[in-house]
Specification:
- The complex is a heterodimer of chains A (659) and B (153).
- Chain A is of the alpha+beta class.
- Among the domains of chain A are: 159 residues, no CATH class; 72 residues, no CATH class.
- Chain A is 38% helix and 25% strand.
- In chain A, the strands form seven sheets. A four-stranded antiparallel beta sheet of chain A has the order 1-28-27-26.
- In chain A, β7 and β8 form a beta hairpin.
- The longest helix of chain A has 85 residues.
- Chain A starts with 7 loop residues before the first helix and ends with a strand.
- Chain B has one domain: Serine Threonine Protein Phosphatase 5, Tetratricopeptide repeat, CATH 1.25.40.10.
- Chain B is mainly α.
- Chain B has six helices and no strands.
- The chains are: A alpha+beta (659), B mainly alpha (153).
- Chains A and B meet through α1, α2, α3, α4 and α5 of A and α1, α2, α3, α4 and α5 of B.
């Protein structure tokens, strides 16, 4: 193989070894560089440089010719598929056998070799993995080392370009090669992107499957909890019956046994109809639903933000207030149709009605099992939902249509359910009556409830004994603030008649919230006042809104208010200054925030959401998808907890979303 | 694909250990979701190596690529053939190479590889025959001696 020494390959190899000599001391950061240099060297010989290629192929064909010479030999042995050494190795060495087993490709795989439609070959990809600047580097380095070295690139430098024509040609070739590499690299990127896209779509489908599984599990979980509850109840009853029997009839034991049996069967039927419930005396009625569910539904956290969980016709008139205790928990809604309904969000079923108010309920709050409602009849009522005679288990007949669609809801609403009216019978705790005009806002926390009324007062109530603890007169406080502070130009504390007259529909007290001794209230003059409940004084007034404040919420850092002036303002609680503000196109009627987003109802068919973490504004709701078959009514009230959003609309529809 | 395959001679120049280490690091960094190009780069680096175990690993990677990447199969056939040729598994090498030639009769690289394989087999075969015949002659000689000895008796 003497002639191979002149072949470009040999030259190439020499170059490589020389290079490695030069780079032998190279730092680790240079590894890639060195590697790249080598690769491009190879590339230029094999592909980029046609002349080199021709040489090479010529050499190769010569090589082959030479190899062919002992043709007889070959012919003699061509029938042997393998050489003896190979045979020995493949039969005797275990590692060889293992390797063969690992790499063996069965014929059926080999049979399936599709047409090669790749834009670049893997080898080209290999060459192109080298960054562009490596070439420059290489050139510079080569120039630097020119003196002491055999020329690295045979063709390039051997005959120094004598004529400018040649020089240009070479330049052109180089550029061509670069261009080619560039396109290969481009194709690599695009194919990599395609690969990643495929992976993403695969993962998405997997995610969907798992999400479905999660949904099923949660459904089962609820069922299981219900079963557990029932079992507990039965156990309790059984024990009670036994006790009763033991005290009443200590002698005759066998008959009581039968008694218990009949009692139990009666009980089982009693789960179906409420009329029997009523006959059964107190111990049953006192039974509490567990205040907290053992399991916490998390499914909605994995839904894509803005996807609908449920939507149903809750009322036939505009929703005035709604609240829920926890995701997939219990929701209470009130509407202008003068009803207050309690809903099981998990099954999406109306559990019952809260009856007692003489007029429609303007505001309400749900906390665990306690519901507080403030009504136009000037009273506030408190309800304990744990007293409700309601089993979350579906009756067997209803189980079929308990699918997540509005139809099922409407059905359950339309069908006269004696359960509905009577199931909440034992819920009312007590009523707080001291206001002389409609109650427009309330908030309770722990044993303290605060309410705001159209009689222009705020009242603080003690929920333990149901008494009014103090009354705060907003106008008086405003007047006092203006009298003490009006020395300068500052008339902040004063009751202001806003530029646009507060329209009649605006509530005097739009919203309030208390925490310990702190109370914040937003009023129709656009002011937000911070009260100290210990002194009964306003200790700070936040001026900024130009229309009635309709909603308000604070956490430990910020106070967020929404107003009919279409803006939402975020205040810094400590300094009382504006932290952020933004506006929508229409008056804001309701707003709430959780750890991540501020959701607002802005008289539009969609819920407005402001994502605090990434500063994004987006809309959520049916109005989005342009399905204008029935134009959805505007959203009136929103509540959000842990990304679980409920909204009530003007036409009585309640939507549940993730966000 | 034509000229986009390296010739067999190109597989004879091993990379430097640190260069191979770069490829290996990249390969390991991408973990279970390793891209085909990275896998190829590492495999090709391994095939070029002069260590037999590395070559084996390279062939294993190529068979992996072959299994998983349907539209890279044709290319992979060549590397499988080349790798097996370097390993001395001429039977396998010929199997893959012939298959490739069936699909791409015009491939210069495959044709040259076939020549190389044939040559290697022939050389080894000749050696084998030489050894065998040597053994046979020796055996004949011994046999003859024994035979002669027996006859003399």
């Amino acid at each position: 193989m003497a002639n191979r020494d002149d072949s470009p390959v040999a030259r190439l190899r020499r170059t490589v070894s020389e290079e490695s000599g030069v780079l032998g001391t190279a730092l680790t950061t240079r590894h890639l560089e060195a590697f790249g240099r080598k690769v491009t060297t190879t590339a230029s010989h094999l592909i980029g440089d046609p002349s080199g290629n021709i040489h090479y192929q010529h050499a190769m064909s010569e090589l082959q010719k030479e190899l062919r010479r002992p043709g007889i030999q070959q012919r003699v042995f061509s029938y042997t598929k393998a050489s003896p050494t190979e045979l020995v190795r493949s039969k005797l060495s275990t590692s060889e056998i293992q390797h063969r087993a690992l790499t063996y490709l069965p014929d059926e795989i080999l049979a399936n070799i599709p047409e090669d439609e790749n834009v670049y070959s893997l080898f080209q990809g290999f060459q192109a993995t080298v960054p562009e600047e490596e070439n420059e580097h290489r050139k510079r380095r080569r120039r630097r080392n020119l003196k002491g070295q055999k020329l690295l690139e045979g063709d390039d430098d051997e005959e120094e370009p004598t004529t400018p024509l040649e020089k240009l040609r070479k330049e052109r070739q180089k550029l061509n090669h670069k261009l080619e590499m560039m396109s290969v690299r481009k194709n690599m990127c695009s194919s990599e992107i395609r690969e990643i896209d495929n992976k993403i779509s695969n993962l998405n489908t997997m995610r969907k499957i798992v999400l479905d599984r999660l949904g099923d599990l949660e459904q089962d979980e609820v069922q299981m909890e219900q079963d557990l509850l029932e079992a507990d109840d039965k156990l309790e009853d059984m024990l009670e019956e036994l006790d009763d029997a033991a005290t009443l009839n200590p002698i005759a034991t066998p008959p009581t046994e039968i008694n218990i049996e009949t009692e139990i069967t009666e009980e089982e039927t009693s789960f179906m109809s409420a009329s029997i419930y009523e006959k059964i005396p107190s111990p049953k009625a006192k039974r509490h639903r567990p205040s907290r569910r053992k399991s916490i539904p998390i499914r909605h956290e994995h839904f894509e933000a803005g996807s609908s969980i449920k939507e149903f016709q809750a009322h036939n008139d505009m929703i005035v207030a709604l609240d829920f205790d926890s995701p997939f928990g219990t929701m209470v809604t009130s509407a202008l149709d003068d009803t207050v309904r309690v809903w099981d969000l998990n099954l999406g079923r109306c559990i019952g009605l809260l009856e007692g108010h003489h007029a429609s309920v303007r505001c309400l709050q749900v906390e665990d099992n306690i519901v507080a409602t403030g009504s136009m009849d000037a009273s506030i009522r408190l309800w304990d939902l744990s007293q409700a005679e309601y089993s979350t288990r579906l009756d067997s007949t209803e189980e079929e249509d308990a699918v997540d669609n509005g139809v099922a809801f409407e059905d359950s609403k339309e069908t006269p359910q004696p359960l509905q009216t009577s199931s909440m019978q034992s819920c009312p705790l007590f009523s707080l009556e001291a206001h002389v005009a409609e109650v427009t806002a309330l908030h309770f926390r722990g044993d303290t409830l605060v309410s705001g009324s159209a009689d222009k007062t705020l009242r603080q109530w003690d929920l333990v004994n149901g008494r009014c603890v103090q009354t705060l007169d907003v106008l008086w406080a405003a007047a006092q603030a203006s009298s003490t502070m009006n020395s300068g130009s500052n008339n902040d504390g004063q009751w202001r008649t806003t530029g646009r007259l507060p329209d009649a529909s605006a509530d005097f007290v739009g919203a309030l919230q208390c925490f310990d001794a702190a109370l914040a209230c937003g009023t129709a003059d656009g002011m937000v006042r911070l009260w100290d409940l210990r002194s009964g004084q306003v200790h700070r007034s936040l001026v900024g809104h130009t229309g009635p404040v309709t909603c308000l919420q604070f956490d430990d850092v910020h106070l967020v208010t929404g107003s009919l002036d279409r803006s939402i303002r975020i205040w810094d609680l400590r300094t009382g200054s504006i932290h952020d503000a933004y506006a929508y196109d229409n008056p804001i009627t309701s707003m709430m925030f959780d750890s991540r987003r501020i959701v607002a109802a802005a008289s539009e068919p969609v819920t407005k959401i402001y994502d605090k973490t990434d500063g994004r504004h987006w809309d959520c709701g049916v109005g989005m998808n342009g399905e204008e078959s029935r134009s959805p009514a505007s959203v009136e009230r929103v509540r959000v907890k842990d990304g679980y959003l409920t909204e009530g609309r003007k036409d009585g529809v309640v939507g549940v979303w993730t966000c | 694909m034509g000229s986009n395959l390296p010739y067999a001679a190109d597989a004879d120049s091993p990379l430097k250990p640190d260069e191979l280490a770069v490829l290996r690091a990249q390969f390991e960094k991408e973990g279970p979701y390793v891209g085909v190009q990275t896998k190829f780069n590492y495999a090709w680096g391994l095939i070029k190596s002069s260590s037999r175990s590395e070559q084996q690993e390279g062939v294993r990677l190529f068979s992996d690529i072959f299994r998983n990447e349907l539209n890279r199969r044709r290319e992979c056939l060549y590397y499988l053939a080349l790798g097996n040729y370097k390993l001395g598994n001429y039977q396998e090498a010929r199997r893959y190479n012939d298959l490739l030639l069936d699909h791409e009769p015009a491939s210069l690289q495959a044709a040259s590889l076939r020549g190389l394989i044939d040559d290697k087999v022939a050389k080894d075969g000749l050696m084998g025959v030489a050894i065998l015949s040597g053994v046979a002659i020796a055996a004949a000689g011994v046999g003859a001696m024994i035979f002669r000895g027996a006859r003399r008796r």
